[in-house]
Amino acid sequence: MSGIPRLLFGRRARLRWIHLILGGALAMPYVLVGSVVISPLTGTSDVFSSPTLQLASFAVGLPLAAVTSLFPLTRPLETATVRWLCGVDAARLADGPARTRAAKGRTAVWYTVHLGLGGVIAGMSLAVPPFAVGLIVLPLFAGLRDSPPGLPEVLDRTWALALSPVVGVASLLALAGCAAGCGALLARWAPALLGPTPEDRLAAAEARAADLAVRNRLARELHDSVGHALSAVTLQASAARRVLDTDPEFVRDALAAIEDTTRRTVGELDSVLGVLRDGEAQGTLPAPTLATGLDDLLRGTRASGLKVTATIGTPLHALPSLVSREAYRIVQEGLGNVLRHAGEGVAVTLCAEVRDGRLTITVKNPLCTSVAAPRPAAATRPGGGHGLRGIRDRTRLLGGTTEAGPENDTWRLHVELPLRDDDMTRGPSHAGRTAPGPPGPPTEPEDTP
């Protein structure tokens, strides 16, 4: 089917015809209300006996339809039917109720036009086919020529009787053409009347941004927790395999470290997946912070073969919870990068302190070491990872700064996270700070397990 037949009787034309008939069905209650108004005005008890009075009832009912279109569900329902039956792209139509005055006005116009055209096409669909079929079969049945009155005189003429089937077929084609034309008009007007307003586009953009922010946060959490754990477990298993026959005690400690790391990571993974499933992590372990998780992190990192020297110059329990949580992930990723890229036996220094209302975190490790050959990044993860990008994202969201790169013979990661004065309990340990430099030995025994 192609060309004009397809335009008149194709699948899309048939669906749009159904859409118009649905509009006519929706218009019927308003027409009945209009007949209640017209009947006393004209003194006629049977309004539907006169086509003129029917049209008057229809005209009175349409403004009522425009008023009822202000109900919130009108636009979502109309949008759904337009997508399904009119073949309009979903991206060009709005989702949800109309909220602004302009959107409500356009919805009222659409609903009125849909019911108006639908009422006309539905009425034609009921009246024209029987009339057209009667004209088509009229030459075959002489009894049909006796009614209505006056018709026999006209049909006594041979040419009129011969043309009646042609007129019947033309009536059906005219009906199909009217239905196809009205359906095409509604499909063309739908994006303008049911399309998203600037406010709708802004709300959709904000919803997408919020969803993307949640996805990015989950991706960072999974990368930092699971990625660090896998790196640590890989190095511990590798070291244990090399000394399996010569140092059983080391192997036993490595297996214990692997067990502890995986158990802790499974708990963190449950928390992240709880957020992904339910929007909240009720019943799962809380996210680790510097105060609650740094000791275990340092212990596991040292068990993986790194020589970590930690200098903590601030009471960790006094840090704001958000800063402490993000700082833990930053430290975790910084140490994880050393595990993945620097090799075993590397000496790492970690310094965390508060200076001028900002939490500073510095992780340093030698670029070259004689303890073990550097581990190529591709050997751990082809194509590299997203660790530094995740650190920068976390820092930027808190309004801080990130510096990462070689410095003399070391690789230096330096992060500063701002703190509010009312979020921090300042004590004497914050006085007398000096400029950042190579960290010294641990200053607080509880920070170096």
From TrEMBL:
It is an enzyme of class 2 (transferase). GO terms for molecular function: kinase activity. Residues 215-279 form the Signal transduction histidine kinase subgroup 3 dimerisation and phosphoacceptor domain. This is histidine kinase. The chain crosses the membrane at residues 20-41, 53-73, 109-142, 162-187. Signal peptide: none annotated. It comes from the Bacteria. PANTHER family: NITRATE/NITRITE SENSOR PROTEIN NARX-RELATED, NITRATE_NITRITE SENSOR PROTEIN NARQ. Keywords: ATP-binding, Kinase, Membrane, Nucleotide-binding, Phosphoprotein, Transferase, Transmembrane, Transmembrane helix, Two-component regulatory system. Its EC number is 2.7.13.3. Residues 418-449 are annotated as: Disordered. It catalyses: ATP + protein L-histidine = ADP + protein N-phospho-L-histidine.
